[in-house]
Amino acid sequence: MDYSPDSMPVEKLRLVLVDDDVDLAMVTQAALEMEGIDVDVAHDGRAGLTLIDRVHPDVVVTDLIMPIADGLQLIQWLMARQGPPVIAISAVGSRLHAARELGAVEALVKPVHPGELAACARKVVRNAATAH
User: Fold this and answer.
1) Sorting pLDDT into bands at 50, 70 and 90, what band is 10?
2) Which of 127, 125, 93, 131 is nearest to 12 (CA)?
3) What percent of the chain has pLDDT over 70?
4) Distance between CA atoms of residues 124 and 64, nearest Å
5) Residues 6+ away with beta carbon under 8 Å from 64
6) Average pLDDT over residues 78-101
7) pTM score, whole prediction
8) Rounded to a whole number, what is the largest CA-CA distance in the chain?
9) Contact 60, 72 (CB under 8 A)
10) Structural domain boundaries of the chain?
11) Which H or E run contains 93?
């Protein structure tokens, strides 16, 4: 029996994307799905938390500056609940440091290339799996 990494069955990664930029979220969702990732989208932190509770993703990607509840609040809520790992994305670099301080495992500057985001999400999930 062949147990090389290429022959092992790969479970599809499930990701929740939280971003108030509807157009960017739609483009990112389509690109990540072309990378083989299942993506669910919410457009503010509160809706993101509801979606996360419903779909139980492997990883969450959140923008930091959003109305209603921002990405920093979402990270705080998820860390308090020992939720899935979080990748923070923002065009404002100073907010990324705050996201890391709150528990985000990765912080990327927008715009993020979908291939880079997909690779980052896979790495984060792999690292989380080996940590448990």
Assistant:
1) low
2) 125
3) 92
4) 18
5) 70, 71, 72, 88, 89, 90, 92, 95, 96, 98, 99
6) 94
7) 0.90
8) 52
9) no
10) 14-131
11) helix 93-102
